[in-house]
Design brief:
CATH class: Alpha Beta
Number of domains: 1
CATH architecture: 3-Layer(aba) Sandwich
Strand content: 15-25%
Helix content: 40-55%
InterPro entries: AB_hydrolase_3, AB_hydrolase_fold, GDXG_lipolytic_enzyme, Lipase_GDXG_HIS_AS
Largest sheet: 8 strands, mixed
Order of helices and strands: HHEEEHEHEHEHHEHEH
Family: Belongs to the 'GDXG' lipolytic enzyme family.
CATH topology: Rossmann fold
Strand order of the largest sheet: 1-2-4-3-5-6-7-8
Distance between the termini: 37 Å
GO molecular function, one term: triacylglycerol lipase activity
Protein name: Acetyl esterase/lipase
Structural class: alpha/beta
Keywords: Hydrolase
Shape: globular
Mean pLDDT: 96
Length: 287
């Protein structure tokens, strides 16, 4: 493992420590403070949007957009945790990024996030042709991105041109073998922690097998071109592999990478490669 990759693992352990105590509000603030270490390019523009924030860089083209759905186990994450990453996606995809600040559990359990993402996407159809829209996300947001695709297809709405997900959590029952085989290697996630977050998100009312909660259990046919990326050190490794296989998606597995390693573009080459791959996938589909 390279020194840079070891640093990525250590940085994620710092995040776990920072958000392991206190109320959920304190944990959310700790996440924002941790994310403050990542530089946002000076020319990045962040503006309010009725569903979150709008992010653009000098490379962004005004007729292409990426709807981004963030991770955080459906209970954490905000514009303040993802601005640097959104700037990277905007530049790589040569698109504007519509960051959806969806409602979080436990205050807003399933299906609130799916409903919000659906409404955010429909609002984009008023401004962009569907073939100029892509959907992206990481971790829980990766699962939400796939769930959104299923819902849009089920409702007969125009589908986006492409989707790209990193480290997606698509099985809220956490049945993949990597939940055990990679437990000692993942610096950030645990099966127990994910199951607790799933219980909170579902609020004891919805089934973890619902395809809009765990899209791996849904019909994954007829979706737009999908790119799935995952690291070898993740307990979510098998979620990604299963998703790619069942959806006929392109899969990239990154050696030694931990959960959501693409955060670290300022110093990790593999993170820059991951964001570049997202951008190339989106750009090729939305030309």
């Amino acid at each position: 493992m390279t020194p840079e990759m070891e640093r990525a693992h250590a940085t994620l352990r710092e995040l776990v420590d920072a958000r392991s105590v206190g109320t959920v509000e304190a944990q959310r603030q700790a996440y924002v403070e941790w994310a403050g270490q990542f530089p946002v390019p000076a020319e990045t523009v962040v503006e309010p949007w009725e569903f979150g924030v709008w992010v653009r860089t000098p490379e962004s083209e005004p007729d292409r957009v990426v709807l981004y759905l963030h991770g955080g186990a459906y209970r954490l994450g905000s514009p303040g945790t993802h601005r640097a990453l959104m700037a990277g996606v905007a530049s790589a995809a040569r698109a504007e990024v519509a960051f959806a600040d969806y409602p979080l559990a436990p205050e807003h359990p399933f299906p609130a996030a799916v409903d919000f993402a659906r409404d955010a996407y429909v609002s984009l159809l008023d401004r962009f042709a569907a073939n100029r829209i892509a959907i992206a996300g990481e971790s829980a947001g990766g699962g939400l991105a796939v769930a959104l695709l299923l819902r849009l297809r089920d409702e007969g709405l125009p589908l986006p041109a492409a989707a790209a997900v990193n480290s997606p959590w698509v099985d809220l029952e956490c049945t993949g073998e990597s939940m055990a085989t990679r437990a000692s290697r993942d610096p950030m996630l645990s099966r127990a922690g994910l199951l607790a977050a799933a219980t909170e998100y579902l609020a004891g009312k919805a089934s973890p097998l619902h395809p809009y909660a765990s899209p791996i259990y849904g019909d994954l046919t007829g979706l737009p071109p999908l790119l799935v990326q995952v690291g070898t050190e993740e307990i979510l490794h098998d979620d990604a592999v299963a998703l790619a296989a069942r959806a006929g998606a392109r899969l990239i597995v990154v050696q030694d990478a931990p959960h959501v390693w693409h955060y670290f573009t300022s110093w990790l080459p593999e993170a820059r490669d991951a964001v570049r791959a997202m951008g190339e996938h989106i750009l090729a589909a939305t030309r």
